[in-house]
Amino acid sequence: MALDLSAVRRVVEGILDDQLEVRRDAGGRTDDVLDENTGELKSAEADDALVWAGPGAIVPLGQPAITAPLDGSVAALPAASAYQALLPLDAPQTRDDDVIAVRGSTRDAQLVGRRFRVADANVGTFAVVRIVRLQVVD
After folding, report:
1. pLDDT digits (tens, 9 = 90+) for 58-99
2. DSSP-derived secondary structure letter, 91
């Protein structure tokens, strides 16, 4: 007997209330330009194409425990990849280096305008939502 997760999927997709866009740089990094002042590669203007737009969520992966600093101790800070995107299963498969932009958020206005680079897409047998590991772009 097959396990039917359609009801769980509907519930989970019902809480995906951020408006996200997935954009893909068709030329990849080959046409990026080095900013000699910052040492960063900057992509060419209007270089990307919209792959998908729709509901989703940006959530933290988990944060280190909050502890009082000790003299001479090193603090554990969240990594740049401390976020993940939750996308509906019918969203197209993301690729490494795709950029997910937040266009609207009913729960957190500070998310709007933020961009994240896809670091890894998780897949699984019993998926009810697509989970994508992210790196902060800005």
Report:
1. 998 865 545 555 666 665 555 556 799 999 989 999 998 899
2. S
